[in-house]
Amino acid sequence: MLFNSNEFLFVFLPLSLLLFYLARRALGKRPAFIVLFILSLGFYGWWEWRYLPLLIGSLAVNLWIAERIRTRKQRSDLVVGLCFNLGLLAVFKYLGFIEGNIEALFGIELDWPKLALPIGISFYTFQQIAFLVDVARSDSDEATDPARYGLFVSFFPQLIAGPIVHHKEMMNQFEAPPSNDKLMRLAAVGLAIFAIGLAKKTMIADPLGAFATPFFARATEGGDIHFFIAWAAALAYTFQIYFDFCGYSEMAIGLAMLFGVKLPANFNSPYKSRSIIDFWRRWHMTLSRFLRDYLYFPLGGGRVSRWRRYINLMIVMLVGGLWHGASWTFVIWGGLHGSYLMINHGWRAIADKPMLKPLKGLISNLSLPITFFAVVIAWVVFRAESFDAAMAFYNAMFGFHGLSAPEEFRPLVEALGLQNSVFLFAENYRTDFYMGLIWTFGAAVIAFFAPSTLELLRSERPTADFDEIERSLPAPRRYLPSLVSMRAWSSIAVGVLLYISLRAINAAAETEFLYFQF
Q: 51: which of 118, 134, 450, 512 fits an S-S bond (Cβ 3.0–4.6 Å)?
């Protein structure tokens, strides 16, 4: 059940809000969260009821292990907990990947069971690993309340595609819910954020996906991919995943606020980054936080030698790539970003040397396009169905098969004297093709120049970690009014966005959020 589906928007969400607010009024604030826990389990079971016992079992086992860790103070209990959680991931997410690699390596055939990937398992498993580690560090005393713990893990706005929430930013909100007046304000702001996120998903990401997908499918099938097409599809996917993930992240934040809960930010205009280091502070922020706190720091972080630090960065990014999916393409994507981070840190270490100062100024001025170019290149292998399909794209993008341009560019090509070196093509679906290019350009303008939702709602501090996030936001723009201060106009805008988004949902073919598959 996706957030942009009719079942969710017109059945589950209204029913959940009704039951939550009735329970809050009749039973009190804390019992209402128990109702919300039950509703969250129902939300998960709606997708595939046979995997609901897996989620409940994971909650129960981790709660039991956490209690043993606290009372016994033995490291072996933490090891058992880590093995349990990583074992679940190995069986349900990576079993087919392991089987395929063993078959390819040893030339044998295995007949291991084919298991469907339980939706959200990567997210709720990482949350519980972090919880167990913090209990072992004596950094948490929350394991004694099963209802709050269960809701912390299974809260439906973040259950199936993040953010990867931390117990410290969630448990207190369940323990001390907001007053009625504050809840109503949170709900109003949450509805606005949800509408903006839904619009980004349905009005920007989905059309870009419809444009890019046929070209990546063509590469998978061994079809012809040339220079112009490769770059058009790569850029379209670059902005598709941007607005898909941004839209989902904002919808999750908005939905949580409807119930009086603030989630952490997971997306902060990453294509405005001027370095790969900054990119990973803005993209999938809660995954970056988890990998930093529970993998990079335990490996030594920045306290070790420079080369050991670079190795640690590569290990972290390879794990991050594998977390996204059981495929070598995701591992390669992680390796690319690990290499980018190594280069970025290495450059910072030597950039102040006198002989490099002129180059430092040039790179500083070009830092945004350099970073964006690196990100686009990495997205190709992330999106490709196979390594061969990715290589077909790279060969075309770097001109190894020659240059190309649409037939309509013939006058320009001839004026430049390039008619013998540029292949001119005409796509059969020309109208859709050029609409895709226009949509990609419009998405780029929004991503690079438009204010983010966090900027528009700065005065409402809409995330659990906004004190930290605010430091990374640009200074308030005088010409940019707060959505809240606009009152009537913002209400009309929210209504219009919801109406157009709903029309787009009903008119489009079935879609999904890209991060649901991870």
A: 118
